[in-house]
Structures are given as C-alpha cells and as structure tokens.
Amino acid sequence: MDRRSFFRRVKNSPFKSFIYPPYYDKKEDFSKCKDCKDKDCLIACNEKIIKIVNEKPVLDFTNSGCTFCDECAIACKNGVLSLPYKKNTINAEMIINPKKCIAWNQTICFSCQDVCEEFAIIYKGMFNPVIDLEKCTGCGFCISVCPTNAIETKII
C-alpha cells in the first residue's frame, strides 16, 4: 500500500475518534445508533450541538457547548446514551493554541474566560490564558466564543 492510500484509509476509517455526548458506557455501543430512525438525541439537545456522523451522535462546539442537561440521554430509546453512564466531563481536552490566540499576541480578550462556568481558564495578567485541565469539563462553550478559533480539542 502506498503512503497516499494509507492516509486516505485512516481518514475514512469507521473507528475515527469523535467527541461524544457524556452519557455513554462504551464507544462500541454507538453501533446500535444505526438502528435508530428518529435520532431523538439530536432533536432533544437544547444547545443543538449534536450532529449525526456515520450514524452516531457526536458533539459539534461550533455554535454552543454542552450544558450536561441530560435531555439527549432521556430521549435515547436504544440505551446508548443513558443517565446511569453520565460523566462529569466530555471525552476531549481543550487546548489554547498560542499562535492563534489574540490574548497570547498582546490583545486584550477574555471571551473564553467569561463564558467558562468552571473557572478553568486562567490568565497570567491580562494575557497568556491557559486551561486548567483539573477544572475543565470539556463543555466546549469556550470554543464557540473564541474569535480566532484558538481553542482546539484533543480527543481522550
């Protein structure tokens, strides 16, 4: 297999990692989602951050974040998302890219800190924000408000 074919295969892999709602037990359980016709979790999400990718519910923080409201788990009829599996964090770490962040480049901006309910974003003076991973729940609200898309996710 040549290099180009290898990377194309990795890109199109069904095992690609995504950010999932915080109500699942095992990632393998998402295979049951293909049997779901109604996609009730998508409809139930008040923040409208659930998207269906490869017949699975994944989170998209482009416009909002997760409030951990439980509605998607309550709506799930296949038991993939369920309240007993609720986690207090999402399967992603938020990372601030200093090259993209305007606060790291000497411009006053507190957009991410203002929206963070966990007080997980800490500034050194008025600049150089960092995310305290001990406090961060991965809710994604900071991503949706960042004017330069400086907050990136790392799937865990």
Automatic annotation (TrEMBL):
<dbReference type="GO" id="GO:0051539">
    <property type="term" value="F:4 iron, 4 sulfur cluster binding"/>
</dbReference>
<keyword id="KW-0408">Iron</keyword>
<keyword id="KW-0479">Metal-binding</keyword>
<keyword id="KW-0411">Iron-sulfur</keyword>
<feature type="domain" description="4Fe-4S ferredoxin-type">
    <location>
        <begin position="127"/>
        <end position="156"/>
    </location>
</feature>
<dbReference type="InterPro" id="IPR050572">
    <property type="entry name" value="Fe-S_Ferredoxin"/>
</dbReference>
<protein>
    <submittedName>
        <fullName>Periplasmic nitrate reductase, NapF subunit</fullName>
    </submittedName>
</protein>
<dbReference type="InterPro" id="IPR017900">
    <property type="entry name" value="4Fe4S_Fe_S_CS"/>
</dbReference>
<dbReference type="GO" id="GO:0046872">
    <property type="term" value="F:metal ion binding"/>
</dbReference>
<dbReference type="Pfam" id="PF00037">
    <property type="entry name" value="Fer4"/>
</dbReference>
<keyword id="KW-0004">4Fe-4S</keyword>
<dbReference type="InterPro" id="IPR017896">
    <property type="entry name" value="4Fe4S_Fe-S-bd"/>
</dbReference>
<feature type="domain" description="4Fe-4S ferredoxin-type">
    <location>
        <begin position="55"/>
        <end position="86"/>
    </location>
</feature>
